[in-house]
Amino acid sequence: MTEIVMDQTPPLLQGPSEKERKYDRQLRLWAASGQAALESANILLVNSGAGTVGVETLKNLILPGIGRFVIHDNALVDEADLGVNFFLDDGCYGKPRAQCLASLLGELNPEVEGDWSPKTKNDSLGSLLKKSPLFTAIMYTYPINHVELESLEQYSKEHKTPLIAIHSTGFYSYFTVRPPGTFPIVDTHPDETATTDLRLLNPWPELVEFAKNMTKDIDGLDNFEHGHLPYVVILLHYLDQWKATHNGAYPSNYKEKTEFRQLVRDAARTDNPEGGEENFDEAAAAVLKTVAPFSLPSGLKEVFEYEHKDPIQERSMFWIIADAVKVFYTKHGSLPLPGNVPDMKAQSKVYVQLQNIYKTKARKDAAEVLQTAQAIAGAGREVDPAEVDLFCKNAAFVKLINVEDGGDATPLGSKERLQQVLRAEMANDQVAEMTLQPMSLFPIYLALRGLAYCGNASADKTQIVEAVKSLLSDDLSSEEYGDLKEKMDNVAEDLARAEYGELHNISALTGGMVAQEMIKIITKQYIPIDNTCVFDGIKSRTQVFRV
Amino acid sequence: MDPTMGNPMVPMTAQIPVPVAQPIPLPVLTRDSYNSQSLGRSLNGNVKQARVLMVGAGGIGCELLKNLVLTGFGEVHVVDLDTIDLSNLNRQFLFRHEHIKKSKALVAKEAAQKFNPAVKIVAHHANIKDAQFNIEWFSSFRIVFNALDNLEARRHVNKMCLAADVPLIESGTTGFNGQVQVIKKGVTACYDCAPKETPKSFPVCTIRSTPSQPIHCIVWGKSYLLNEIFGASEDESAFDHSVDGDNAQEIEELKRESAALRKIRNSVGTEEFAQMLFEKVFKTDIERLRSMEDMWKTRKPPEPLNYKDLLEKAKSLDKEKVLKDAQKVWSLEENLVVFNDSLERLSKRVLESKNAGQESIITFDKDDEDTLDFVAASANIRSAVFGIDRKSKFDIKQMAGNIIPAIATTNAIVAGLCVLEAFKVLKGHYEQAKEVFLTPFANARMLASDKSREPNPDCPVCGVYQTRVFVDLEKATLNDLVEHLIKTDLGYGEKDFAISNEVGILYDPDETDNLEKKLSELGIKSDSFLTITDEDDEEPFVNVVIAIQEAKEPLGDKPVKGILDPEDVKIPLKPKKQPQPELVATPAPTNGNSTSNGQNGGVIDLDGDEPMATPAKSLKRGHPEDAEGPSVKKIKANDKAADDDIVFIEDSAGAIVIDDD
Q1: What are residue B591's phi and psi, to 5 degrees?
Q2: Which residues 318-377 in chain B show a CB within 8 A of chain A?
Q3: H or E stretch at B180
Q4: In A, residues 500-539, which contact B (CB 8 Å cutoff)?
Q5: ipTM here
Q6: Among A31, B226, B262, B485, fewest CB within 10 Å belongs to which?
Q7: What is the 3-state secondary structure (H, E, C) of B585-640?
Q8: To 10 degrees, what angle do helices A442-454 and A484-498 make?
Q9: Cis status of the peptide bond prior to A356, with omega within 30 of 0
Q10: How far apart (Å, rounded) are the C-alpha atoms in residues B34 and B29?
Q11: What is the pLDDT of residues B122-138, one digit of tens each?
């Protein structure tokens, strides 16, 4: 079935360096590991309706180089398609839309393999899903028919495939990203300055000894040596001094920290030609940020406290390493050391020694975690040390997405969930004027859902509003909703006027946002939205909901 | 359509009565059915008639051109000077492998045209700063879209649009970040209303004598060594050798060093060349530096290298293997291998063009492997000399090449936002125009929009009164302008005022020598700008900028003629100085992935430890959810830099600023 639809074969890129050059500008965002994940991705688009938004999304995935795509689309190309879809030209008129799109999109990147469906009368989405290689992610656009939707949901459940729903009509759009179950991200790309962990309040013996050695005769050092003490060493020295006069306690509140900062500042020598010392300035500047007791970051806390419902998921490599890190944390009261040292004023030789002390400790911590993880994984399962290293380096910033809330929260995807979000949003709207917040975009989301529910291009305002009421099992007139009815009428009227048509521009913009989130999911880098993003093209605004 | 179509969020078991619509025959759909339905007939008509200009056909440009064509804009002009490069293909989807080295503007037009034959696309493979694109030409457009990647071209288009009073939609992207803003003269803030970040700067002596970071060595390799050996004839004016007490001696020495290096240039292509060059810059020069004991009192002195010893050690290395691994940090020996090999490749190019009778000039281009290898290897060898960390070629490329990450998705979002703002401009609804920022690390919203800022009354570009004058360039003197326009039509009367252009003051009450000179003798041409500064202490006019326009038809008795009736001239007074000027954060120019004037003047994140460039925003409108706040620290740094003498060394891949302390 893997017939390649490109009718021309442009030259494939020569060797790795040429490919590296082509993808240079994006490699700087997601590195070779992200690129490799993209290149092995197999993406299905189930296209329907006016059919532009899905294609625009796919374009933004083909350009950065996914491995393979398949377009399933039952429509034949008509005149309106030509006006809204860039990847269809006059020659496509009357032909299967899937075929034309696959061909023109394929031209964008000769390294990406493309296919389409249905090719014969007997082909269906169901048969495609059966015979295709496993899909990495599946996106579909409204108005998809319910038979096809059910087979996608079935497939997603069975194969743990992320599903992405997209709906663009007129000036409005939304998309929902549904990863299969809880989705952990290790490589969240935190701001580099945030990742610095110097362990000043719980230094390990090697670091203590190094600092003590350098500062044992701090007043006897000549100006050059004194002016080149790394700020880590300076802070460790004066923290010791502070403890000695404060019953062994570290500076703990803002007042004490500013006092401590002054202590450090006053220790700088001013009788030198420069009239001050840069390294002491650096030390004073670092006090508020680095002199802070450890507390478990919320993202990691969620990971540690997570209750597994799925035994298969529990055995995944992420959770094995997470458990090992938890063991480490329970034992030591701290996380594995990331090991990076920020640039600071110091003699080169000393700075390199300092770097080595941090690196050695980081390696030791990671080795311990690896050993624990290997024990948890058991014989016959190899734990990748690189994966452990990455986890240890990013431990403080690990994040879970698509977690089912426990307790009273209503399950995602349920009618009760919709009602709950609606009530909260409308309550916010009541005070929006006072809090200077913009109005909620939730009515737009509901109206688009209502339109899809009608499934009819000629649905009028009343029908769309009625469909929303059915979806919610609610007549929308409750006092707590404020002027929801009026808002709903306005959006529904705009949608009815659009007659299920897409504006190319809105769909192109939405396609950019959807592709961005899909790249995050495929590369498992950066934090994807959780889980629905609504776009209002009239106000150029977006809002994210968990529904 | 199927009335039973369901929805995934509703369990199929929940039997909710579905309103079933009667099937109604669909209207016959035409090419612009959807546009006409959603935009409304009036706006759709406006769009079809609009003649718009798009400056830049790169990352944002490709997306924007597609959107403009499919939205049905009647006529689109595209200007771009750049040609297509392999590294564009990951996002500039109108281009293919076979288009590499061809004009972006022309290929983009070809590719986009076939998708909507009704739209007229006109492509200009040219620099937007060319004289042909004058104010009159700008004023022939309904809207101008900026899809540029550099500060200089952005500023130029901003100025031209203000002069022509054409609304400008300005946009930029950097990695996952992006922004869009509407600029309308007198209504919203212009591009220059908020100060822009200037590129990072380095003292000359840090680069040439006392480097302490990898970037110092990279700048040395790129802007000094490569330039002196292969670049344009040495550009004395690029270096400010002004002497002050502290560095006088060192600057003198550096001059002598450069002169000696230039002599070696004549030996390019000879067998001994690599050794000569190596021993000059990594041995002789280093020994001289090392001998200056004062310099190394508080620094680790550099270690000169021995070419022969190093070559011996490098003998066993596999050159091809080394060259292939751009991600690895090369050892000193590996760097020598790359140094020699790239030198050989560059020398060969020089000899080839010499043999062909052409002058050979090689300038740094991050996508030219030969120059990149040379800069990477020489920077790393210098780092070894000074005990500084070496970097991989991949990292050096980013640092030397001013590479701003760029992806298809961000460009798609920003281009879409541009068109949405264009709708408001077409309707004249400037009060609804928004300044929109992508907030990729604020997962609760992804986009943030703000009301357009108001013009800054102190803005040097738009806080002025602009007018135009038709001039008979053959006849008109400066005095004609003073007597027949400024004193009379513009209403200066007996006020004291000065006239200046980009060169300097042409006239003021004490400087009247130029009055009798013809404008042409003063270098004033059509589309030159003159600034009138009111020198009265009380109630002065704001500065007036006059755009000179060559008269196309005879002007009658006077050789100058203002564009406005004197009665319509209303020059505002300068705003009274506020005690506390509004605090405006520095907006970072972002990247449209296209070059229209051949230079990349954007922000250079030279040492790689600055946060990603933040989109323009002012402090009073801080977004609590934003992962990146306005960069206050940067303002401070810039203020400091502005006080020093700044020397620009420009080359094809970016302006590196060296400030001479």
Answers
A1: -120, 120
A2: 324, 326-327, 367
A3: strand B177-183
A4: 501-506, 508-513, 515-516, 519, 526-530, 533, 535, 537, 539
A5: 0.90
A6: B262
A7: CCCCCCECCCCCCCCCCCCCCCCCCCCCCCCCCCHHHCCCCCCCCCCHHHHHHHHH
A8: 50
A9: no
A10: 8
A11: 999 999 999 899 999 99
